[in-house]
Amino acid sequence: MELHRFGDESLTATVSEAGAELHSLQDAAGSEWLWQAGPEWPRRAPLLFPVVGRLPGDVLRHQGRAHRMTQHGFARDRRFEWLRRDRAGCTLRLRDDEATRAAYPFPFTLDVTWAVADGVLSCTVLVSNPGAGLLPFSLGAHPAFAWPLPGASSAEGHTLSFPGSGLETLAARRLTGGLLNAAETIPLRCGALALLPALFERDAIVLPAFSGRRLHYAAPGGAALKIEWEGYGDLGLWSKPGAAFLCLEPWCGTAAPLGWDGEFMQKPDITHLAPGASRLFRWAVRPLPSPS
């Protein structure tokens, strides 16, 4: 497994060819902002494609055939090809092959570009359809950030806010067996969500058709992360109670709803890409260390 390290004077990132996954995000002081895997969850920031979440029975149904498709898809477990590596970042590519077509019978190209500039890490994903028919897909980011944030004395008192959204509540959905189920309204206090392990006792918080495009993850001592995204219309929030990470996940697509089990082309919240077309998705994060 090859890794590529890049960055500037304020921020350094490391990306792996395995899954085009971010492995590290360190500030100028060497503090690590990304969860470093562990027994609670062995990943760091997987790329979700061609599904986000789960399909019923882990089966993708297309034109009368059943294909094995496990949770969050296969891209996170595939080795990508390096297209570019330099001091500013890298670009990696995944194309369809015999193995992917057994699970997902569609031609595709997935280009992932990571870059650091002016203390901001960005991830741009270009999904392309080289085929003659529609390409149905979902795409998601799944970065796990440290909780507590660097410099914070404990996990207590951390919050999430959504600048510019004007939200007073979150219109959430919960999961049953990995499938989208019950609706839930989560109140915000002064526009912020108090982060408590109990929030994730029933798995992830899914925010379909989320109106915001920015969030602010902050610790009491002043350390914070600012995240923004383009192209993604859904958001996932996840942790495991007691684990030292918080996943902040811009998505395009969600898990299948409980009770649905149909043709993948007609899956609720699926995206269709026309033949020869491409679509761009981007998210970016700026770590803000606590004042010294």
From TrEMBL:
It comes from the Bacteria. Pfam families: Aldose_epim (PF01263). This is Galactose mutarotase. InterPro entries: Aldose_1/G6P_1-epimerase, Gal_mutarotase_sf_dom, GH-type_carb-bd, LacX. Gene3D superfamilies: 2.70.98.10. GO terms for molecular function: carbohydrate binding; isomerase activity. GO terms for biological process: carbohydrate metabolic process.
